[in-house]
């Protein structure tokens, strides 16, 4: 590693301050190094001064290859706690993996763990009764796994006996990360801890979308089926599958591939489309139905999947000009009559014999099919699709769907306003859908990518309201807050849900996850639909704000 880069890293750390904080009379720093393919190796250093510690770090890094990922952590705010007090504090944290401090089991930091190590290796475990989104995590330290981590990953010969430990030391850090080209100061507060600080949102957004598009494209196997997802912190592969997510991920990948101008991706995407049409659909009376196959229960036909097939096929034709799927698009439209109710609402799930299974499953399905019909009509000018679209919108207006705050409803109304123009009822529906939800959006701590999708569509809708001369519909609402919230959620998503190098390096096989998107509170789950929602939101934000 070049001496000039080492000096730059050292100076950046010193600029953060706190270099004189002592624990046991010493300054403590940690070095994390990854070659991209393997989990970062972590080593703590102590000395009587910053310069003394840095000298040891510099000696270690001089022989490191220049393209390796390197993170330096300066330990600050060390606080000794009774182990029982620490355990109580850990248990009180509502969400899994939301413990955001380092911990040492001795005051000399021989047995110390960075926050990133703890969470990436699932060293703190939620209660066996924990259900994500239902109840609190009730986390406890997995002391056996912690002891094994020190002996196996850190190669410490003297095995830690956590049972004999009465005190622990929790700490924060000031951190700098080097990715082989650029050096970043990392966030050290709140939910953004461990992610890079950069004033160039547009540049960072472009990089995240590029990496995300590569990641999602790489999940398409030779067969055309996606690698469905992973629990990286648990080193588990998700083996189930979902038809809605198959086609919706294709749609998002099309958006992202168009954004990054990756025409080579279209062959992968076509392979995924063909796999879906061959393996995840059935045909009855010239009508094409999506089908979800289950091992232990009956297969079923979902309205949401019908919508996603339409969206994926229409987007593919729009971008590539390839009209070879027009027959299938028309067959999906033909199938909608089996889902329609007399009041113009939709049945959500059918059995494969076309009998009713569930009148209602999730609110998403109504917005999804309405959005799909709008896209279908824009591409084909099919009068039946327009009729279905208007009936669906009128049904949502009559049944106050604005109270659901669903991003698909915003997508649907925004797109439909290009078709039905000055329809005040549709505008009111979309306005309520977002503006009565801003408090929730502002306070939501998880990355929750569909919120950005909602905000993107809502901002476009506001522009259409203004263009139509119906400004009075927005008089009681804070449009400026809506605009600012859109940027706030974009930054929040990047900081809390992206496998940037400084995050990925602490997991096994970091390059495998680089560019993916995750749900921290669900063991860093990265599933194709997580990538789908992040990519769609970030791409559409960039188009709206910068292009």
TrEMBL record:
InterPro entries noted in UniProt: 6-hairpin_glycosidase_sf, Beta-AFase-like_GH127_cat
Coiled-coil blocks: none
Domain of life: Bacteria
Keyword vocabulary terms for this entry: Transferase
Record bears the keyword Transferase: yes
Swiss-Prot/TrEMBL GO biological process terms: carbohydrate metabolic process
A single MF term (Gene Ontology): transferase activity
Non-reducing end beta-L-arabinofuranosidase-like GH127 catalytic domain sequence ranges: 291-398
Protein name per Swiss-Prot or TrEMBL: Poly alpha-glucosyltransferase
Species assigned in the record: Paucilactobacillus suebicus DSM 5007 = KCTC 3549
């Amino acid at each position: 590693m070049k001496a000039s880069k080492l000096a730059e890293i050292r100076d950046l750390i010193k600029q953060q301050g706190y270099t004189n904080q002592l624990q046991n009379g010493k300054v403590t720093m940690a070095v994390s190094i990854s070659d991209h393919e393997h989990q970062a190796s972590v080593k703590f250093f102590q000395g009587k001064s910053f310069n003394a510690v840095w000298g040891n770090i510099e000696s270690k890094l001089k022989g490191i290859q220049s393209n390796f990922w390197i993170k330096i952590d300066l330990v600050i705010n060390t606080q000794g706690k009774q182990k029982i007090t620490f355990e109580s504090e850990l248990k009180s944290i509502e969400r899994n993996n939301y413990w955001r401090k380092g911990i040492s089991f001795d005051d000399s930091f021989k047995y110390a763990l960075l926050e990133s190590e703890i969470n990436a290796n699932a060293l703190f475990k939620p209660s066996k009764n924990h259900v994500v989104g239902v109840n609190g995590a009730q986390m406890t330290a997995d002391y056996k796994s912690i002891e094994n981590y020190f002996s196996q990953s850190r190669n410490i010969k003297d095995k830690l006996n956590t049972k004999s430990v009465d005190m622990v030391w929790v700490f924060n850090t000031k951190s700098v990360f080097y990715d082989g080209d650029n050096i970043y100061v990392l966030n050290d507060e709140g939910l953004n801890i461990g992610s890079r600080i950069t004033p160039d949102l547009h540049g960072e957004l472009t990089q995240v979308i590029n990496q995300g598009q590569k990641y999602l494209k790489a999940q398409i196997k030779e067969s055309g089926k996606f690698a469905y997802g992973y629990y990286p912190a648990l080193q588990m592969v998700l083996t189930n599958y979902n038809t809605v997510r198959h086609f919706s991920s294709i749609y998002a990948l099309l958006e992202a591939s168009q954004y990054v101008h990756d025409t080579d991706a279209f062959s992968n995407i076509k392979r995924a489309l063909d796999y879906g049409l061959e393996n995840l659909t059935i045909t009855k009376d010239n009508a094409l139905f999506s089908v979800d196959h289950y091992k232990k229960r009956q297969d079923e036909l979902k309205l949401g999947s019908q919508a996603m097939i339409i969206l994926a096929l229409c987007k593919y034709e729009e971008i590539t000009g390839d009209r070879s799927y027009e027959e299938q698009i028309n067959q999906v439209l033909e199938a909608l009559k089996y889902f329609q109710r007399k009041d113009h609402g939709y049945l959500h799930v059918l059995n494969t014999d076309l009998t009713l299974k569930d009148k209602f499953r999730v609110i998403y399905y109504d917005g999804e099919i309405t959005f799909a019909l709008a896209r279908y009509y824009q591409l084909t000018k099919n009068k039946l699709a327009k009729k279905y679209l208007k009936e669906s919108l009128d049904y949502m207006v009559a049944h106050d769907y604005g109270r659901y705050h669903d991003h698909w409803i915003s997508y649907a109304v925004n797109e439909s306003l290009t078709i039905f123009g000055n329809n005040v009822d549709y505008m009111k529906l979309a306005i309520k859908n977002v503006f009565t939800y801003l408090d929730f959006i502002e306070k939501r701590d998880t990355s929750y990518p569909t919120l950005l999708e909602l905000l993107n569509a809502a901002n476009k809708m506001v522009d259409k309201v203004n263009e139509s001369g119906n400004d009075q519909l927005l008089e009681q609402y804070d449009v400026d807050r809506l605009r600012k919230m859109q940027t706030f959620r974009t930054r929040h998503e990047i900081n809390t849900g992206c496998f940037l190098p400084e995050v990925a390096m602490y997991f096994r096989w970091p390059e495998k996850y680089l560019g993916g998107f995750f749900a921290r509170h669900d063991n860093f789950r990265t599933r194709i639909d997580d990538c789908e929602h992040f990519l769609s939101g970030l791409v559409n934000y960039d188009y709206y704000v910068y292009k």
